[in-house]
Specification:
Largest sheet of chain B: 2 strands, antiparallel
Strand content of chain A: under 5%
Order of helices and strands of chain B: HHHHHHEEH
Structural class of chain A: mainly alpha
Strand order of the largest sheet of chain B: 1-2
Number of helices of chain B: 7
Largest sheet of chain A: none
Oligomer: heterodimer
Number of strands of chain A: 0
Number of domains of chain B: 1
Strand content of chain B: under 5%
Largest interface: A-B, 26 and 39 residues
């Protein structure tokens, strides 16, 4: 049995999960901090 | 830990630390995986499929470490009423769940060529699946509690009780000798050859730093949202 499709699948899944997690967390953080800054500047 | 009880002091450290953990972790992950895929030898018994180890083992470690972190934060919330403990516990839940899911999926992809099956209800796999369900339940409970304005004490109790699953996962390969292999890395050494152990170590450190960066980002986001909500409440009053 050729093992490489399984290896590539495992690495693709890991890359997708990890990059998705990092990107979503970064975007949520930036939005929340920008909202907080905007509200502070409004005062 | 009490020096971080002040969110402003925590943020003063977390802001510069986040990119260091993120970029450092990313570089180590790439180095560890390139080493594992292209330079490390194939296993004499498992063949090329052993290369899945370099993503599967760090994911398993982080799935368990994430819940251990939740349990410690929950304890701090109860004993010292640390104001950031609940925020930290919630911040660790999603990354812990994602890495547990990655562990299960990559384990299944490793199992098919080596064991001839995608899934088996053996002790290690079943207890890891239970961990994923615990994460999902914790996220739902913490979100529901926060929406109702609670302090997160129910979620903290759940975080502590759920930690019972961690020794079950760890010892499952000793208690129930079924399909999953026994422990390869312990406090007294490792049965893995150094040519495979080093890339695994680099990859695990890299993923751990990335996990730390994600937790800090989620904590910073949660604190900023709390600040916005508090200001809006003050303005409405």
């Amino acid at each position: 049995m050729n093992h490489w499709p399984f290896i590539l699948g495992a690495y693709a899944l890991t890359a997708l999960g990890t990059l998705g997690l990092v990107a979503a967390s970064y975007a949520a953080m930036r939005k929340a901090e920008a909202d907080a800054d905007a509200l502070r500047n409004e005062r | 830990m009490h020096i971080f009880a002040n969110p402003a002091r925590f943020l003063k450290i977390a802001r510069p630390l986040t990119p260091w953990l993120g970029w450092g972790g990313g570089l180590l992950v790439v180095a560890g995986l390139v080493w594992g895929v292209f330079l490390a030898p194939r296993d004499y018994l498992q063949g090329e499929s052993v290369r899945i180890m370099y993503v599967h083992v760090p994911a398993a470690w982080l799935g368990m470490a994430g819940w251990a972190g939740i349990a410690v934060a929950s304890l701090m919330q109860f004993v010292w009423r640390h104001p950031l403990a609940g925020v930290a516990a919630r911040a660790m839940a999603l990354p812990g769940a994602v890495f547990t899911a990655i562990c299960l999926a990559t384990g299944s992809l490793w199992g098919r060529p080596t064991w001839g099956t995608w899934w088996e209800w053996d002790g290690r796999m079943t207890s890891m699946l239970v961990l994923l369900f615990l994460y999902i339940a914790f996220i739902a409970l913490a979100d529901a509690e926060r929406d109702k304005g609670g302090e997160g004490r129910l979620a903290a109790i759940f975080g502590l009780v759920g930690a019972i699953n961690l020794p079950i996962i760890h010892y499952s390969v000793l208690w129930w000798r079924t399909l999953h292999q026994g422990q390869s890395i312990g406090v007294r050494g490792s049965s893995i050859d150094a040519s495979m152990l080093w890339p695994l170590f680099v990859s695990a450190i890299g993923f751990s730093l990335l996990f730390g960066a994600v937790v800090l980002m989620r904590m910073r986001g949660a604190l900023a949202r709390q600040k916005v909500e508090a200001r809006l409440r003050r303005m409405a009053a």
